[in-house]
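Format notes (please read before filing issues)

Several people have asked whether sequences and structure tokens are stored in separate files. They are not. Every record keeps both together, in the order shown below: the sequence lines, then the token lines. Line labels are part of the format and must not be stripped during preprocessing.
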Amino acid sequence: MYPPLDTGPTFHTELAATTHAQPDSVFLRCGATSMTYAELDDASARIASRLLNMGLRPGDRIAIAALNQPEWLAVFFAATRIGVVVVMLNARYREAELDYMLNHSGARGVFTLSKLDTFDYVAFYSVVAQQIPMVEHIVYLDDDYSDLASTAIDTDALHAAEAAVSPTNPAAILYTSGTTGRPKGAVLTHASMLAAARGELDHLDLTRDDVLVGNMPLNHVGGITCTITAALLARASVVLMPTFSPADALETVAASRATIFAGVPAMYAMMLAHPDIDRHDLDSIRVAIIGGANADPSLCTAITARFRTARLSNLYGLSESSGACLLSAVGDDPATVSSTLGVPIPGVEVRIADVDGADVTPGADGELLIRGAGVAAGYWQMPDETASTFLPDGWLATGDIVTATPDGHLVLRGRSKEMYIQGGYNVYPIEVENILTTHPAVAMAAGIGIPDPVLGEIGRYYVLTRPDHDVTADELIAHCRQRLADYKAPKQIVLVDDLPMTPSGKVAKSQLQQSFSRKV
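Then the structure lines:
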């Protein structure tokens, strides 16, 4: 099904093939700006020539820290065209994150914005320059892009650099969100990103007629692989949203007649709650993808009620899998979508293993292991962490505890590191969170295990309530006790005004743990 990794496509060969086949087809739209496949190919060639003029060579790293914009992608395709590795950073990272990631990756250049909201990047980099000694070039895309994209093409040097790029070469380094410990830079290759996108394309039957909304951050696999790379392979088009807002998302879907929309649960919840939602025609959407965090049953039901023509699909993927590896099966109803991760997409194998690495008995819980061409090449400059996650024979240890249903769907039980033992019983917070979010007053819930002198550990759940809904902690505990085994019911409920989030849209439970520890 897939070509050998050492002879398969690269980002450049895929862009070149599509440019040859349909040069004038629009690939990217962003506001009033559009970019055809031919225009992106030309811009990437010019920027690649500039990178070569700057002394960058295959294997060197540059970082991009910008919003979802065509300039981001022009630099990405330019760098990968000549074997330069892109370190994908969130535009809202500040000194601590940038200091660590730029130094750890050894980035020689940074392509960023001069300003974002009230933050002045020019002033910032002038102050921290001595902390990032390997960074030789800082390019501000909002000021310098026109000059960058007008570089004369050095055809001989460009072709020589292109010819040296192999599918197994790194294309990007994507730092994990750091929910535990220091961030790790997953090394995504051309082959792994293209394979993950190809599996998604095949599973969802993407075609050149599809219009994808590019609202997921480009520095995350949800944006760069599941949206951009999948659209490239399908020869489809993408409408980029520089930042997400529910009003803009609704307007984008309606105005562009988008066919594919993907978002984390919080995005869907905000869109569904927007007062103007009924003024927008959403019936062009044929697939609504929900991923990045657990989708509770009531939200899935609400999505299918409002996106009336859409097939709802859960998407499970990791940075380390380069993109999607599980998606809901065709025909899954909202109840199945909300209660399972889905099934393996084409090109992905799965195993469920016990603590010793052996396959569990049917129906038992164990760690999800995946294998396929989409698995990343390891963590950048972290051999110990690589060895513990990227296992022999190509298996990736996800850290997620799952069980398999008789029909092959996988059910998430929780993160292996999030599980706590309350009174001798294993409790996975996700199961309790699902019950909490069925209460009409609850918008989001996140649980952690905390020490207890009697039970060893107990569950402490942070609950974000919906506007105009009043509820007490005791009422929520009672709600859970009516629906769960007594040992799973929360012992503590904390009502909060907000929850800390990672850049990929998940609750940052490590911050909840740290906050609790500081108070003890």
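For reference, the curators noted about this record: Residues 198 and 321 are 13 Å apart (CA to CA). The two ends are 55 Å apart (CA to CA).
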